[in-house]
Amino acid sequence: MDDFFAKTILKDDVSEERVAFLEALWKSVKEGHLCMQFEAEVDLPSRLMGDGKALIVQDGDRYYLQKNWVLETYVLSQVKRLLQRTLNVLDVSGSLEKSPLLKEQKEIVQKLLNSSFGVLCGGPGTGKTYTASFFVRTFVSMFSLNRRCKIALTAPTGKAALHLHSSLLAKGNLPSHVSCEAMTLHRLLKLKPGEIKLFSPKRLDFDLVIVDEASMMDISLLAHLLESIGEETRLILMGDPNQLPPVDAGGLFADFASLFGLHLTRCMRTEAPLLQESACAILSENETQLFQSVSLKEEIDVEAIYERLQPMISWERPDPQEALAFYSRFRVLNALRQGPFGVNALNQKILQMMENRCKEGQWWAIPIMITVNLPHMNLYNGSVGVLIGQKRGRIHLFSAVSFFGSEEMKALSSFEVSFVLSIHKSQGSEFEEVMALCPDGSENFGKEALYTAATRAKKKWELVGKKEIICQMLKKSSRKMSGFSIRIKKEQDALLWRLAQNRAFT
C-alpha cells in the first residue's frame, strides 16, 4: 500500500529515492504522526511539494501531508487566540489559604482563576479532580445570584465525562444559579465520529468548559474544541501527559503539558508504593526497578486468567450492583486487540469457557462496554455495565438484560464483552487490581502502554508477557510527532511566550 501510494502520486516522476521518501511519509501518517522529520535533501516535483496548498508541505526538516499541516496550523492559531484573551481576574488567595488544599494545589487554583486557558496535569492520585472541584466552586463564586453560570464538563468518552461530573459534585450541590452539564466532546460539539466541520463561527454558550482525559483527543477533535471557545469562555484541559496518545492522528496534549501545563506532582496514595515505583520506573525506562516492583509471568495461560477472573455463575439471580462492584475489583488489560492472544480472541475464549461451566438454568453476569454513543439512553462510548441472564441451552448475549448503575436496559446491540479490555479502552477507568498482558506484537507499542496499564490499578498490578518484549516497549515511546512546540515558540511574541513559560497565564 505504501509503495502504491508513492507511485500513484509520482506518476511519471518515479525514482527509487522519491518512492522511499513517500513510503516513509505515508507510514508515519498511518502511525498517527502529524509530520515526519527527514534531514536529507528531498527532491520532489514542484507540483507535489511546496507551501500550505501543496500535497506535501515542508517546514524546515519536517514534512506534512497537507491535511495534517492545515490542522496543526489551525490549532496553533486557535491556541494563540485563546492565550491573548484577557478575562476578569479574581484574587482569592485569602480564601484559598483557609482551604485544605496543598500548597501546589492552591497555587494552581489561583493560576487557573487568572487564566482564560489552562492545562492541569498530573498522574493518578495527584488530585486533579480534587483540585478542579475547588477551582469550580471558587469560580462560581464570581457570579452573583442574578447572573447564571453555565459549566460544561466533558471528555472524549461518556464514562470519563460522567465520572468527572460525579466527582466534582461529591462535595455537595452547586448553587442554584449554576448549571453544570456532563457530556461527551462529540455531543458538546455536535460532531459525528470522524466528521470535520471546521471554520465555523459558532461558539459554545458556557462560561467554563472543563475537558477531562484530554490526552485522548486527536488533533481534529482538539481543533473543533478550540475553535468553539468564545471570547468569554474559560477552557481547562485536564489529563496525564504520560498516558497513551489517541489512536487517530496527532496527540498534542503532551506538547500542551510541556508548554503550558500546571503540574500536580505529589501522589496522595500511600497504600500502594509498588505501583508508584512501577510508574516511575516506566517513565524513567528503568528495567531493573520495573521488574523489582511488579510480578512477571512470561506465558499467557487462558485457564489461569479465567480462574483469576472467576466469572459470575450462580443458581440465584445476581444483584446488578454487586456484579458491577465485583468486576471493578479486577480487570485484565491487553496491549493488543487482534491476534491469538488479543482482546477479541481472549474475550471469546473466556466466554466459551464460562458457557461450558454454566449449567442449564443457572444465572450468569458478564461485564460489557458500550461501543457507540446512545444519548437517548444516557449511554456513551466507554460506558461500562453488566449483562445478566439465565442459561437456556446457550448463553444468549443479545436477549439478556443489561445494567448500567441501577438502571435496567434491554435490546442493546452496540456493546462488547469486556472481561479483557484494550489498554487504550481502559483509559479513564480504575480497578482495584490489574493484570496487563503484552503478547507477541506488543513491542510495537511504547512505554505509554505500560504506564497506562499500571496506573489503572489502585492497589496492585501484574505483568504477563515475554521479558524481552516488555523491555522493548520500555525503550520506545508512542508519542506522536508534530511541529507544534517548535512552531509556537517561533511565532509567539516574546511577552506571551515568557508568560507561558513561567506558567503565569496573566
List keywords for this structure.
alpha/beta
Write up what this structure looks like.
The chain has 506 residues and is α/β, with parallel strands linked by helices. 37% of the residues lie in helices and 20% in strands. The chain has helices at 2-10, 16-30, 66-83, 93-97, 103-113, 128-140, 158-168, 185-189, 219-228, 253-260, 273-283, 287-293, 302-309, 320-329, 343-357, 447-454, 467-474, 484-491, 494-501; strands at 36-37, 49-50, 56-59, 62-65, 117-122, 149-155, 178-184, 208-211, 234-239, 261-264, 295-297, 312-314, 330-334, 363-370, 384-390, 401-404, 407-409, 415-417, 420-422, 431-438, 457-465. The protein has a six-stranded parallel beta sheet. Strands 12, 14, 15, 16, 17 and 18 form a six-stranded antiparallel beta sheet that branches. α16 (447-454) links the parallel β20 (431-438) and β21. α1 (2-10) crosses α2 (16-30), α5 crosses α6 and α13 (302-309) crosses α15. It is globular, with a radius of gyration of 24 Å. The protein starts with a helix and ends in a 5-residue tail after the last helix.
